[in-house]
Every structure is written in structure tokens, then in C-alpha cells.
Amino acid sequence: MRRMEHARQPGLPFMKMHGLGNDFVVIDLRHGLEAPDAAAIAAIADRHFGVGFDQLATIGHDDDADARLVFFNADGSPSAACGNATRCIARFLMDSTGHKALRLRTDHAVLVAEDAGDGLTRVNMGPPVLDWRRIPLAEEVDIDHLPIEGDPVATGMGNPHMTFFMDDPADAGNFAAFGARHEVHPLYPERTNVEICQLIAPDTLHVRVWERGVGKTLASGSCSCAAAVAAARRGITGRKVQVELAGGTLWIDWREDGVWMTGPTAHVFDGVWRG
């Protein structure tokens, strides 16, 4: 069992975790620590002068759930959802408490996490958001066929998503430029995550991920969920799919009670930020 020592160490104790290379700094606020501000978050995120991460998450107390999770992007902006970080923190809390299931409050919803066996952790990310106002979009459009070149799909998973389907992902050209351009599309007033999906086998998708406020990442739980939901809505796959990402594999199951995501997690090291 991993424990973080808070009382005797100056600075800000943290844990470094990742899910398929989608990496996080996690700060446990339940012992009296204060959350860093946006400038400190951006400094910690710097991969050359700081620790480096795709998202930062804090763990806090909650009266009606096992813990409250708050997420931030690498640029310091808030995010209501982060699926892989939720799974990583759920595994840490289950290992710490011996519980096999947890309820975790996020700004999006109260999420149920479970031990899936074989070292895997499962989380219900909740029902997808399919109302254009709540995704949110700037105007009413057909969310299954956005009026954008490439015919993408819009989905909300507690954060906004734009999903493209391509027979050859190389058709997108420079992926970094493609993702950066679409992240700030005027149809998305709060910016958006961007996914490029390719069907590589029945009910198996290859997904490239551009995360809002972060950039290109090796994996993303919410992006994988959004891609799976979009593929099912388009009739490209069923509602249970395997998602192949640069960092590994996630299994997504869109059930009546929400979108369940299963995959591995890793607790890499503990440290203290003294910046």
C-alpha cells in the first residue's frame, strides 16, 4: 500500500500516475494541503522545468461520496472530467482502503469505479451528453454531422469532443496542426478535445487524441469514450468496442447506465514539488 507523508515535508507532496502513458500529477488535499493555483499548475506541468503531466488532479473529502476529484489541464484551465485520472485515483483509493468499488464525485457527475480484476480498473463515466447546449456548442446543429469539413461528430463526456472518422488517418495531414486548429473551432465556445478514429477490425477502433489545453497525448479516457459513442451512433461499431491508442488499449462499453471504461493504471512515483 502506498502512502503519502505530508506533515514533515516542506513543499507540495504529489503522486505521479499514468493510464497508458496519459500521465497525471495527483495531489491529496485530504490532509490539509491547499490546491495550487493556475500559475503553479502550469509550472508543475512543464516537462523540462517542472514535473510534467497531461492533467493534474486533486483528491478531496466529500460528504456523500468516497472522495471528490477536481481536474486541471496542463495550461492550468479546469476540466470537469478525466477518465484515465479517475481510474488511476480509484485504484490508489481501492488499494488504500481495501474497497472493491467506490463513488467518486467530479464536476461532471458522481462516478462509480470498480476493481475489474487482472490488475484492471473500471469506471462508469456516466451517460454521454447529446444535447448541443450542454456539450456545449455555440448554436444548434446536427451533432452527428457537424457542419465542419470532414463530417465530425460532437459528444459531451463532461468535456466537449469532436470526433472524425477516416479510412486513412494520414488524410488529416500534420496531426498537431489539425488538432490545434480544431480545438479552437468557433462552434465550440469552451474549446474541444479532438479525436481521429479508424476502424481497424469489427468493434475495434484506432484513435489519435488531441486534448483541449494539453495537446497530443498517448491516451485519453474521455476521448476514448467519446470516440466509442460517436462510432456507435454512426453505426460504424456496436456499443462495446476496443480502443487502440498510442499508449495501449482501453475497453469501452456504452451501457444503459453510462459509458464504462476499463484499462490498466500505474503509480509511478511520489515526490514533493518545491517550486
Please provide a written account of the structure.
44% of the residues are buried. A hairpin with a 2-residue loop joins strand 7 and strand 8. The N terminus is likely disordered. The protein has four helices and 17 strands. It has a 17-stranded mixed sheet that branches. The chain has two domains: 109 residues, Diaminopimelate Epimerase, Chain A, domain 1 (Roll), CATH 3.10.310.10; 104 residues, Diaminopimelate Epimerase, Chain A, domain 1 (Roll), CATH 3.10.310.10. Helix content is 17%, strand content 39%. The chain has 275 residues and is α+β, with helices and mostly antiparallel strands.
Which descriptors would you attach to this protein?
2 domains; single chain; alpha+beta; Diaminopimelate Epimerase, Chain A, domain 1; 17% helix; disordered N terminus
User: CATH first level of the largest domain: which class?
Assistant: Alpha Beta
Radius of gyration using CA atoms only: 18 Å
- Major sheet size, sense and barrel closure: 17 strands, mixed
**Terminal CA distance:** 28 Å
Number of helical elements: 4
CATH-derived architecture of the largest domain: Roll
Q: Report the count of strand segments.
A: 17
* Structural class estimated from helices and strands: alpha+beta
Q: Note the overall shape.
A: globular
Question: Helical content, roughly?
Answer: 10-25%
Question: Element order, helices and strands?
Answer: EEHEEEHEEEEEHEEEHEEEE
**Approximately what portion of the residues adopt beta-strand conformation?**
35-45%
Mean pLDDT: 95
